[in-house]
Amino acid sequence: MTRKTIRTIPQERTPIAVQDPAARVRNFGEVALGYLEAEARREAERCILCPQKPCSAGCPVGIDIPGFIERICEADYRGAYGVLAESTLLPAICGRVCPQESQCEAVCVVGEHLEPVAIGRLERFIGDMAIAEGWTRVTEVEQNGYRVAVVGAGPAGIACAADMAKAGCEVVVFEALHRPGGVLSYGIPGFRLPDRVVEAEFGKVSQLGVRVECNTLVGRLVSVEELRDEMGFDAVFVGTGAGFPRFMEIPGESLNGVLSANEFLTRCNLMQAGSFPATDTPLHMGRKVAVIGAGNTAMDAMRVALRLGAAEVHCLYRRSPEESTARAEELAHAGEEGVAFHWLTAPVEILGDADGNVRAVRCVRMELGELDQSGRRSPVPVAGSEHDLEVDMVIYAIGTHANPIIGQTSGLQARDGGYIAADADGRTSLSGVFAGGDIVTGSATVIGAMGAGRRAARAMEEYLGILEPRERDISDPEQPRVFGIDARQRNFVRLRAA
């Protein structure tokens, strides 16, 4: 193969087809339509297959990105899926919702001179083809007799469950809601991530022998300690996420018509409230809606509100567009669909009518000052700038806290905010209990949670003593040893008596 250079590859990034804004705002069909085969081949040719692979280092699960793209160039799509499957079970999901622009694509060598290779779109192309063709990577695994419980069927829990099943463990996932997927099911609307994709990708986990028990709230029906001790699980992974909504604690938050984006999106995405009364979950949809915040969740809430018939949707954000944490694509799509952005605007009070319903939001204009701990300029109120915005519904999308139930019902050591204290490999203060994802780090990305789940699985294998011999045989004489075992193989190991 002739070595590719920046000058010899296609110079322009291959665009992706999208629904027309005027049409898509009236339906929940997917906005971005994906690459056709010729488009994927052309975009794949933009990868120069550099040996350093900075994109792989920028991926939280370490996908061999040049490896799968090279196979697309060769039209070996099954082979490309095989490369992806070595690191992820969810390529069709990650290709849609992961912030590649701040991870793998951010360090793409091509991006130093041109637009970076559209890695996420290529991953989606292969993931969608795998679903359409029914490709899987299920192999026969010799069972080792160990039982593993996973709490939470979100990205972290499913990634951990898959790796432990591949290692030969019997794995049971306990999910509080009636459908697996975590934030992928309740938090991301169908126009960004269709249900059929989530169901297809999670079906691959079932093919590994993983059993998912829905409608089971660990921390209420059973504790983490009871899973480990009374129920006989040899190891437990906690991946319950950080879905506890955050509010501003300003006057008027108890008025009818004020809710969190978590509740709003869960009602609409998971409970199909937009179809009420054909479904059981009601939703009082406002005509004039204000969404507080400008991250990806805020973009989702605003765009769902438009699709459910809101006449006006306003975004209130106390900083400028440059400080928004939303993906550039989502921000652009929201603007195209008619969202009115009020930058440098902060609510200070929610006003109600005589019946206790929202009638307006009182706001104050802001200006940016010095940098804060997040690296963004701090907003400062402008004196005398108060004004009222007439709305009848207010949705908060300003972040979340840790799910508190596990911390309230177990002896796990926690840190500020109720997040579980765990080391880089997911080990917690309880022997045999591991944790990862948003419940440890706070709200992050889908692929980041998957990476945490996989690291925890590796640590669980160490704990159970089931690593492959080549992985377990550490012979560095410079490392301290305890009873002949490398000290890096820390924590405890359960032994089975004959």
Q: Regions with pLDDT < 50 over 5+ consecutive residues?
A: 469-477, 481-486, 488-498
Instruction: Give the name of the CATH superfamily of the largest domain.
Output: FAD/NAD(P)-binding domain
Largest sheet: 5 strands, parallel
Just name the CATH architecture of the largest domain.
Answer: 3-Layer(bba) Sandwich
CATH topology of the largest domain: FAD/NAD(P)-binding domain
CATH class of the largest domain: Alpha Beta
Count of the separate structural domains:
3
Question: How much helix is in the residues?
Answer: 25-40%
Q: How many beta-strand elements? A: 18
Proportion of residues in extended strands: 15-25%
The helix/strand class is alpha/beta
Spatial order of strands in the largest sheet: 3-2-1-4-16
Radius of gyration: 24 Å
Describe, in short, the structure shown.
The chain has 18 helices and 18 strands. Helix 4 packs across helix 7 and helix 5 crosses helix 7.
